[in-house]
Amino acid sequence: MRIYTRTGDEGKTSVIGARVSKDDARVEAYGTIDELNATVGQAAAILGRDNDGLWDDMLAQLTAIQHELFDCGSDLSYATPIPEKMKVTDEMALQLEQWIDLYEDRTPPIARFILPGGSEHAAALHVCRTVCRRAERRIVAMAALQPCPQPVIKYVNRLSDYFFAAARAANAMLGMQDVEYERGAQVFRRRS
């Protein structure tokens, strides 16, 4: 099987139900989801490099997220979404919330924005977070012009929160303290 088809040589590509320009808002949205999936794979490779069991839960979550990102891309690839064929559900966002809560319970409270980084593990997860935010912006821009399944927007919004919480948890697991942005105002309320 050859992976090249030559059908895109004129700057067009196929989505389910239409042929569009490769810079179409829908293609941009699911293309950024694909980019995000690659960064998640890179983060998983970093976490798994010297895994002594410490990262097992997070690695399992990242693998599940990669599958769900393919679901997001699939749902976004329909020119006109067909409800019974959509794969992303509200329950997927609820699962992310459970993981976020778990990680927040394991990290010290913060009052200000934090610098993305600390450990290599956390830095990789922060890259996932920023690419996820870009994917969300692309999806919202597409949704202003074309039909978009709402659960995808909700999922991607929650996913960026997951990456933030996971990055903080990674630093905590390695005994590294997050560095607060020193000139920032207090934007987070302390957990009770």
TrEMBL record:
Keywords: ATP-binding, Cobalamin biosynthesis, Nucleotide-binding, Transferase. One of its GO terms (molecular function) is corrinoid adenosyltransferase activity. Its EC number is 2.5.1.17. It catalyses: 2 cob(II)yrinate a,c diamide + reduced [electron-transfer flavoprotein] + 2 ATP = 2 adenosylcob(III)yrinate a,c-diamide + 2 triphosphate + oxidized [electron-transfer flavoprotein] + 3 H(+); 2 cob(II)alamin + reduced [electron-transfer flavoprotein] + 2 ATP = 2 adenosylcob(III)alamin + 2 triphosphate + oxidized [electron-transfer flavoprotein] + 3 H(+). The keyword 4Fe-4S does not apply. SUPFAM superfamilies: Cobalamin adenosyltransferase-like. It comes from the Bacteria. The keyword Nuclease does not apply. Pfam families: Cob_adeno_trans (PF01923). Gene3D superfamilies: Cobalamin adenosyltransferase-like. Residues 3-169 form the Cobalamin adenosyltransferase-like domain. It is an enzyme of class 2 (transferase). Pathway: Cofactor biosynthesis; adenosylcobalamin biosynthesis; adenosylcobalamin from cob(II)yrinate a,c-diamide: step 2/7. Belongs to the Cob(I)alamin adenosyltransferase family. This is Corrinoid adenosyltransferase. It comes from Cohnella yongneupensis.
